[in-house]
Design goal:
about 130 residues, alpha/beta, Rossmann fold, five-stranded parallel β-sheet
Amino acid sequence: MGKRIMIVDDAKFIRVILTNILEEAGYEVVGEAEDGKVALEKYPKLKPDLLLLDIIMPEMEGNVVLGKLMKDYPDAKVLIISAVGQRLLVDKALKSGAAGYIVKPISPENVLNEVERIIGPPDENTN
């Protein structure tokens, strides 16, 4: 079984784009969430190797989700999804424990480079 990834973004089309990029590369997308509350409910059940997390969402913004996640699951690996111009929020996320970030518009090369840097290639055995 490949590396397991969960995608959290309020935009369905972003979740679809990321799922296609990741699955074509051989990663397994185990779940999606449209907001932070749903993400925090699903995370412990899905136990993904990596969480892709949008920084700006309704209900609960990404940095709040990240803070709660890192408190309850300090070994969680989180890759922030950010729009251009959100540098202060990204910096805050990195200081709070995010492993990296990618910027919208989504570039398949950037996504895969960051994912592989954080959790390794899709076919590598997990511990």
